[in-house]
Amino acid sequence: QVHLVESGGGLVQPGGSLRLSCAASGSAFSTYNMGWFRQAAGREREFVAVNNWSGRATYYSNSVKGRFTISRDNTKNELYLQMNSLEIEDTAVYYCAADPQAYRTLPVTTPSQFTYWGQGTQVTVSS
Q1: Which pLDDT tens digit goes with each residue over 44-60?
Q2: CA distance linking residue 5 with residue 107, whole number of Å
Q3: Which of 42, 67, 76, 110 is the most buried (most CB within 10 A)?
Q4: Three-state secondary-structure class, residue 29
């Protein structure tokens, strides 16, 4: 069992930045691919970014590529999402998720491939 807790959400103006964090429990964090998803009001949950188990491979949705950066610290069991040049369309609840199939190769982008989910953190981009 993996327990995930996101933090760092908030209200930001268009063009601003936020850094999300996700703290994970358990001893197998370094074997999991870790991802970020988001869900805007009235829309389905969508893939944002994924970081492979080692942290050396990443994959992004086209909508955030070049603006967001996913990273992890396996010594701290933490996952991060640096979000720059935020747009109103980025407003959503952001979730971190763990893919417990150890060492699975990327890309891993569908929600069904991730077994463990955090409770989400709200990001609102508004002027």
Answers
A1: 999 999 999 998 999 99
A2: 23
A3: 67
A4: helix
**pLDDT at site 21:** 98
* Coil, helix or strand at residue 30: helix
C-alpha span between 107 and 120 (Å, rounded): 22
CA distance 61 to 74: 23
Q: How far apart are CA 53 and CA 88, in angstroms?
A: 31
Q: Kindly give the residue spans of alpha helices, DSSP state H, lying in the chain.
A: none
The answer, yes or no, to whether residue 104 has pLDDT greater than 90, is no
Q: CA 77 → CA 21, 59, 62, 111, 121, distances in Å?
A: 10, 20, 27, 21, 18
pLDDT tens-place string over residues 79-93: 999 999 999 999 999
